[in-house]
Amino acid sequence: QLVESGGGLVQPGDSLRLSCAASGGTFNNYATAWFRQASGKEREFVAGLSRPGGRTDYADSVKGRFTISRNSAKTTVYLQMNSLKPEDTAIYYCAAGELNLSTMVDLYDYLGQGTQVTVSS
Question: How far apart are CA 73 and CA 83, in angstroms?
């Protein structure tokens, strides 16, 4: 089970850090990723981290602003979001799977319940 936290209401230009905890396990053999879904839009890939090896991938819209990382115990995955924009407003979902890193959410084995991020002045 994946449990996300850290969402909230912030102003444009602010930062937030989302966390995704693996309940009862670790991400040791899993690729992990963040997806988001804005109201009325399709769910989209945001950032991903491969299985041990640590290769990362980012959507063009967040490159240079967002960073995905994992703690040393491999129990929590983070999404550091800087310079937030109103268009970043969405529900953010954590995903994990025994696969090579992918931008397709359906290929992941586990998906969290989501955390709302709202960027508004």
Answer: 28
Chain-centroid distance, C-alpha 83: 16
CB 78 within 8 A of CB 69: yes
CA pseudo-torsion sign 52, 43, 117, 84: positive
Burial of 108 (0-12, 13-18, 19+ CB in 10 A): buried
Cα separation, 72 vs 90, in Å, equals: 28
For residues 96 and 1, is the Cβ–Cβ distance under 8 A?
Answer: no
Task: Please give the single-letter amino acid code of residue 60.
Answer: D
Q: How does pLDDT run across 53-106, given as a tens digit for each residue?
A: 679 999 999 999 999 999 888 899 999 999 999 999 999 999 999 988 999 999
Who wins on pLDDT, 89 or 25?
89
